[in-house]
Description:
The protein has 409 residues and is an alpha/beta fold. The chain has two domains: 10-219 and 347-405, Crotonobetainyl-coa:carnitine coa-transferase, domain 1 (Rossmann fold, 3-Layer(aba) Sandwich), CATH 3.40.50; 248-335, formyl-coa transferase, domain 3. The protein is 36% helix and 14% strand. It is built from 16 helices and eleven strands. The strands form three sheets. A six-stranded parallel beta sheet has the order 3-2-1-4-5-6, sandwiched between helices. A three-stranded antiparallel beta sheet has the order 7-8-9, covered by helices on one side. The mean pLDDT is 96.
Amino acid sequence: MSALPLSGIKILDLTRVLAGPLSAQMLADLGAEVIKIERPGGGDDARAFGPPYLVDPEGKENNNNSFYLCANRGKKSVTVNIAKPEGQEIIRELAKTADVMMENYKVGDLKRYGLDYETIKAINPGIVYCSVTGFGQTGPYAPRAGYDAILQAMGGLMSVTGHIDGEPGAGPMKVGPSIVDYMTGMNTSIGILAALYHRDANGGEGQHIDVCLFDTVIASLSHWAQIYLVNGKAPPRRGTWGNGGMPAGVFRCTDGELMLVVGNDGQFARTCEVLGAPELATDPRFVKNNDRVVHGKEIMAIFAGLFLKKPMAHWLDELEKAGVPSGPINNFEQVFADPHVRSRGMEIKVEHPFEPELSLIRNPLTFSGTPVKDYRAPPLLGANTREVLSGKLGYDDAKLDTLKKQGII
């Protein structure tokens, strides 16, 4: 088996909470050595975003909650107080041999510590320095802090998410998970990998990458935002209705609900057969997909009445036979019990100081030649401080003890 794709890449990770840590976790999964810098005592802000927390074997309170665990596997935790000159010097020393430095502080914050891009570039010209923020390094909103839900609102995502106007509970709605953070993490990884390739393929020059949640959420709206750019009209909220093929949405059966997406005219005709109403496929209102979009409320109401006649398992089985995309609306228990999910190994087990087998979600990338198989649990706060500072900077025990007494590490 070949080495992992990013073996040999060294990353200094000063990001906290979710978007930046998710990106650094992705790079760690792919073989990069990721040194996560945390505040002595408190650590990453995400450690306080609980409960639930893992159960400490000795019954002590701890800071290993689900929010932190989801985004920090495979890293080394080093505690450094960057507010003190000695701590700043530690970061600069580590940056000298790093390929990548990541941070998500407010714009300008690290400059006062001598940890900004220009300062780090002066000591390591080849470094890829990535800044992850809410609103970017430029523009009138640059100084603002930004969290996922705020960007879902400001970026337009909430305006097109929620029940259809006129229905009970209608109005803007936030997507459940922190989806903008996750997408920003993916964009961050893409940017870092592209900059590393450019550096190594074009003369060894590093650069500064500016990634932000605001840009990401706007770009993610894709064809929804493009509708507005084409005709100047914002698309309405569609609830569970689909974004192209019609009919598409959630339909209630006698014992549950399913999601259906009819993607083309052939699938529509086959769905009508399954539902026992083949005549709908030749109804002038519904023959072509564009017709069904115009008469969306009518066809959705008709389908709703037909699906109510039989149980969910019956419809899912018949729709699958007919080659029409559909699926159950699973909760998390059902997701992780699903035979396909289990066959894909999406739940992994790692050894953790608190649990012999801690469940995590595997990296979604599957490589034929360099598979990601050996996962390491998210580290306890400061677990690798002595190892890293002694091994990389040559600090002896006496110096490490002094730094700890001074509150530097």
